[in-house]
């Protein structure tokens, strides 16, 4: 199965797809990023920024100072990467100083101008003064900037003024704009920063009246909503647009309404980003800006800042299949577990050693083929759920959007007559296939497979469909994959919750759609002693750690599973005494829960029942759930489930073949 392009009849047409991805309209958005946003030395940062597709870069002064080369060397390095230096920053504590400090600030400015000219950039950022020595007054500050504008003009340079949210006298972009307006100099303009405006909850519509030619550059950052000191919040918790909770889209719409046609630049201060992969963070940044531009275009119409003219976010109707890569021995064990869950083998691939198991609307593929990507995935990870198929309204459009948002296409040759499924690389380097019901893609099991009779067929367990897919990732990857899903697919992210593991805390956040047809729980592991961390360490990477199947009668399903030979995860009897007291359960219900090892939760929307398998391999497991109006995922039960699963696992340091 491979990722290709489709015309309306489901056939492959590269020209049609390329036109979808490459068309442009209106003002072409120009993207930039500050070097402070990503980790590494300056050359490494510039390489990552250029590779991600940015047009320009802000040079943060500390990155320049730490570089063992001249300003001219830095300028050449930037241009050799095909980038433009959009801004040199920051110049601090300038306006409102009294003599002799005032003269010193102008001397410092002249030295900055020297560096800028050697770098080859014409714009410097001056942030609002935080010095206790500064004196307030709009007219005083305006006079300082007018004089600075005169000096900058002699060198062909420009100065942008930014209101820091914690500025001593100026902390609001409206006041900064008034200073720029009164300075009345063509070389003095305003720099807008979404974090400084949104963190102080300033009305973004105040931006709309600012003349576009006086906005010299726009800096963007999102952030989770945290009640803390503004400076500390800014310095440690900013993230990419779309990764946090601030209304960055509304801010950018207000900027676009002015007719602004300059750079949109990311300025992110984040401890996690500073320690992460420079390439991955830069790629996330570029994706976030492309997604933001698409949102603005859809809100304000064509002619505003845009990137690729991509289709809308893809609605998801459900999970088409999940595919496991394994070997012959692993397939025997996995097949036995699927039989115990009430699945039956219904088909085998026509040219590959791939088996299809079905129950209700659930389809599981077991790939034992010795060639292709699945075999390579098995060689690295062992038995692994390496691929998932999402059923979307239009696979070709979903694929086009994914490529426009910098997703990596997955391409693998197929035999003559087999379907070519569009696909992109996902979590842990796995595969996300895209199928729909409007083309032949929805008939992949009929076209690529031939039916078989399962001699080991047992009774169904009443499993209806996949309720949710749980993907375990390193914690510092969570924002990457949340942005991946929410930008490509019509989904939303839920608030982050802490999952308590006896060995630590796992951060969990869900990507879901309104109908509940797609639910992906993202679990971020911070240490390998947790169950999630153990899974990542043993599987050599992130991936699907468990699948949850939906039933409409968990007690009947439990009985059916027992007749299939299923062995549920044993839950401590102590749990049931507590859950009865917490929820005031009827003792008879408690006894039923205990007899079948079913976990229980309840909220204002309804009830939730959970039944688990034991672990398969190094931490993978299955879950069966029943929802009675409940929208969550049973987070309060996680510690009890994790403790039970870890009791089954190989002790740390014991070789796999020693048990």
From TrEMBL:
The keyword Transport does not apply. Residues 465-614 form the VOC domain. A divalent metal cation binds at residues 162, 193, 219, 267. Keywords: Dioxygenase, Lyase, Metal-binding, Oxidoreductase. Gene3D superfamilies: 2,3-Dihydroxybiphenyl 1,2-Dioxygenase, domain 1, Divalent-metal-dependent TIM barrel enzymes. Pfam families: AP_endonuc_2, Glyoxalase_5. Its cofactor is a divalent metal cation. Mg(2+) binds at residues 468, 546, 623. Pathway: Aromatic compound metabolism; 3,4-dihydroxybenzoate biosynthesis. Its EC number is 4.2.1.118. Coiled coil: none annotated. GO terms for molecular function: 4-hydroxyphenylpyruvate dioxygenase activity. Signal peptide: none annotated. Belongs to the bacterial two-domain DSD family. Catalyzes the conversion of 3-dehydroshikimate to protocatechuate (3,4-dihydroxybenzoate), a common intermediate of quinate and shikimate degradation pathways. This is 3-dehydroshikimate dehydratase. It comes from Pararhizobium capsulatum DSM 1112. The lineage of its organism: Bacteria, Pseudomonadati, Pseudomonadota, Alphaproteobacteria, Hyphomicrobiales.
